[in-house]
């Protein structure tokens, strides 16, 4: 049995599950439209992505990326400033690419969803009303017109892999769409504010840091209910609730 690879549960919740068997990741998702979008986005993206080994719905098999994740939300990153800058450069390459054929969320859609989530957070005593109100005010700065770019849509730090100071690949493209460039930069640096300067330096152009902070609030407010309902803890140290508190 020594040559039998162990099965590791990478993530599992009501929407989908990802398993690792040796050097292969198996993504199980009942929503095939979501998998279709992920495969197409990886084919279009001008940055390294996992190799698609095979697909047999509802399973998508992907080759493991070399290196390690740039970091994890709630944990200090051991990656170098140069690695963070390389991540910023990779994001800029993506944003400079031709737009994907499908649209993203509009400002009006985001504003409506934000209103609903804030009401739920207060009505269910998930967060103090003053914390929600203050972050709702901060989030307003993100709800403005933007020039759409090719966005990853869920560019959390654990989805970017590096080997030394080089980006080896970007995972999980199910949320890719046309969107706001600063949203990707905000998600990448969520909970890792100390590396924002490195990312912006690698990105290579001026960005509005106030809007990035607004996206930190907006992203966190929108995520908390989903995280709670899917068995995750947004109140863990360094995670979404702490991000909201830091905005006070």
From TrEMBL:
<dbReference type="InterPro" id="IPR002575">
    <property type="entry name" value="Aminoglycoside_PTrfase"/>
</dbReference>
<dbReference type="GO" id="GO:0016740">
    <property type="term" value="F:transferase activity"/>
</dbReference>
<feature type="domain" description="Aminoglycoside phosphotransferase">
    <location>
        <begin position="41"/>
        <end position="204"/>
    </location>
</feature>
<dbReference type="Pfam" id="PF01636">
    <property type="entry name" value="APH"/>
</dbReference>
<keyword id="KW-0808">Transferase</keyword>
<dbReference type="InterPro" id="IPR011009">
    <property type="entry name" value="Kinase-like_dom_sf"/>
</dbReference>
<protein>
    <submittedName>
        <fullName>Aminoglycoside phosphotransferase</fullName>
    </submittedName>
</protein>
<dbReference type="InterPro" id="IPR051678">
    <property type="entry name" value="AGP_Transferase"/>
</dbReference>
